[in-house]
Every structure is written in C-alpha cells, then in structure tokens.
Amino acid sequence: MDRKENLVLIAAALLWMMVSAETSPATHLPGCQDKCGDVSIPYPFGTSKGCYFNEYFHITCDTKITPPIPFLWSSNLKVLSISLDGHMRILTYVGADCYSKSGASESPTGSYAVLPAFPFSNTRNKFFGIGCDTIAFLSGVDIRGQTYSTGCLSLCSDIGSVTNGSCNGIGCCQIPIPENLLNYNASVGSVRNHTDIWESNPCGFAFLAEEESFNFTIANLTNIKNTTLLPSSIDWAIGNQTCEEAKKNVTGYACKAYSDCYNSSNGLGYLCSCSAGYIGNPYLPDGCQDVDECKDSNLNKCLKKCHNTNGNYTCSCPKGYHGDGRKDGQGCSADQLLLVMIVVGKHLIFRV
Fold it and tell me: What are the EGF-like domain coordinates in residue numbering (predicted)?
C-alpha cells in the first residue's frame, strides 16, 4: 500500500468519526456479538462461528473474567483494539534478565509471540533493549518461512549519562523490525553481567512494542521490571491474494458494494475501504452507506443550496442567482433582472 492509499484509509476513518454521531452503520453481522468487554469486534472479526470471515479472524472472548477479555485466535495474546484500516493492537511480553551483585543470573524471562496469520507492523513497532549492560537479541520467522536475526547493544557507565526520551544506545537501544514478521523470540544478554553498574541497574530488558506507546525514561532502567506486557501492533488483511486476483472470485471477494480494494503493504492479502462519499464497514453487505454531506457544512463546499446525491453532492444557487453555487468555484451572482429590481426598489424607498 503506497502513501496515497494510506491517506485514503486515514481520510475514510476521519470521515467516519465526523458523521458517526448522526449515523450508526452496522459493524458486525446480524445476531453476532459486537463487543468483548470494552473492545469492539467489527466484522470480518467475530467471536463465534458464522460471525467471522474465516478462522484467522476468530476472536476468543473470555467471559470468565470481568470485564471479558478478547484474545487473538489460537493464542494467549490479549487484544486491545481492532480498526477497519487494517491494524490491531495486542499485548506482548517484556523479556528480562536480572543479576545478583556477584553477577549470577536470576530467573531470566524471554519475550515471544506466535501469530496465526497476520504479521507485526514494521511501521508502528520497534525492537527495544533497555539497560546499562544489555545485549538485546531478536530472532523470528516471516510469513514465508524465512528466518531473521538481529539485535542491539545498550551500554552506560553511570545513570548520569542517560537522557530521558533518548534511545540511542546509552541506556536504551532500538531498531526497526522487518516486514512480514510473523513469529519472534526476544532474549537478553549482558557483557559483564551488570557487575559494573549493579547498584543502579541490575537488570536488562528486551521487547517488541509500539514506538508511540513506549517513551524511554531513566526510570525505565529499574521500574520496567514491574511491567510484563506492552502494546504492539499487527497488520491484518484478507486472505493471501492481491486485489486483482481476489476480484476474480466474486463469491469469496470481501469488499462489498461502494467500496475500494487496496493491497496489503505488510504481508499477504488485501484491505477494503468505503469509497469516497460513503462510510461504514466495507466488509458487510450494505455496510457502506451514503454520507449526507449537506447536513454538515464542514463536509460540503456549497455557498447557498446543497443537494445530496448517492456518494456525492451538488451545489446550486437560489432563484434570481446564477453560478455553480460553490465556495471554491463561481459562487452565486445575482441575475441582471434581479439587480435592476434591487436598484429600482432602493430608489423608490429613498424617494419616499
């Protein structure tokens, strides 16, 4: 998906928010659960058979917990949110390795995740290493079965050399992750087992997380030990075909009426978005509904009169005026006869 296509999806989401107060298009199939706890579950996702597009879109809703918590199908990954622009936020684990004063490792924990189908977002996530004597390792497998290994080094001789908000290798390091990363395992190592910095930083940490959700501070050198989970982002899409390939199978094609198709930019498959002038869920039959731009002056460029049409609108001028009626066009100008009548009327008024 290129920059233009991303902007189209963002614009559609913004349009949805602007008009959602007046209209409430369906987000799920009839008779299906639309929420699990506080998390909305829009189709193609669903919590029960017949309510999701296929098994990869199955969300397990644990109702034994109050409030209920949604999990990604066939995993222990908690779902935070699902958006129709192809993103899902989940919680992933923080890996840690703490040492005793003598340098002995104390119960290290790793960070790993196995996704059923959708890859981690390479544009929203980063891999982080935290500590003053930390080697953070990341290995994984992409959606095509290719293996991947990388890492970063974070060092500092004392806490005073660390800067809040800076993740440049002094107390914190970060690196991008590759496209199509489906499974990963993060582990933590050390150069000198934190013996030189043990008093102020006995632990090292490694994790994959949303870049916007994690802002490094000096306090993270110690307090992140109490954090076991952090948000990360997944890029979801329909199937493993391109738009062109999927359109050949009319019955299996996911994009419904008044919607457009975009190839996924990360992983396989495609996404749907309601066409310009429509809002709603493009994966549902009749899910994309016409926007009445005339009801909101922020959505139209009409100077005088607005006429809603299917997927668009037109402007016109009142009787006695001519022009295209648009603020960004010719506007509305009084007809010659009307001008004469106005001038005569004023003249008569002043004579009286």
Answer: 290-324
pTM score:
0.83
| 225 and 95, same domain (yes or no) | yes
Distance CA 38, CA 68 (A): 8
For residue 126, what are the β-bridge partners?
A: 176, 209
Do 18 and 65 belong together in one domain? yes
* Cα distance between residue 122 and residue 307, in whole Å: 44
Query: Which residue in the block uniquely carries the two structure tokens 């002043």?
Result: 350
Question: How far is it, in rounded angstroms, from Cα 228 to Cα 299?
Answer: 45
In the numeric block, the tokens 């076991």 are attached to 228
* Interatomic CA distance for residues 32 and 267, integer angstroms: 28
The least confident of 55-59, 203-207, 220-224 is: 220-224
Q: Are residues 71 and 106 in the same domain?
A: no
Q: Give dist(CA 259, CA 279) in Å, integer.
A: 9
Sequence-distant (≥ 6) Cβ neighbours of residue 281 within 8 angstroms: 25, 26, 27, 28, 42, 43, 84, 274, 287, 288
Would the pLDDT of 176 be above 60?
yes
Residue 19 has what pLDDT? Answer: 47
**What's the chain's average pLDDT?**
89
State which H helix or E strand residue 339 sits in: helix 336-351
DSSP letter (8 states) at residue 11: H
Q: How far apart are CA 272 and CA 71, in angstroms?
A: 24
Task: Domain of residue 187: give its range.
Answer: 90-230
Nearest to 72 by CA among 86, 82, 84, 83: 82
Question: Which residue type occupies 322?
Answer: H
**The residue to which tokens 């933590």 are assigned:** 188
| Cβ count near 40 (within 10 Å) | 15
144 C-beta neighbours (distance < 10 Å), count: 9
Structural tokens at position 219? 């306090």
Residue 343 has pLDDT above 60, yes or no: no
Q: How many CB atoms lie within 10 A of CB 7?
A: 10
Report the half-sphere exposure of 184 (CA within 13 A, side-chain side). 35
Backbone Cα Rg of the chain: 28
Give the model's pLDDT for residue 286: 93
Residues making up the chain, counted from first to last? 352
Got the DSSP string for 239-299? Answer: SSS-HHHHTT-TTT----TTEEEEE-SSSSSEEEEEPTTEEE-TTSTT-EEE--GGG-GGG
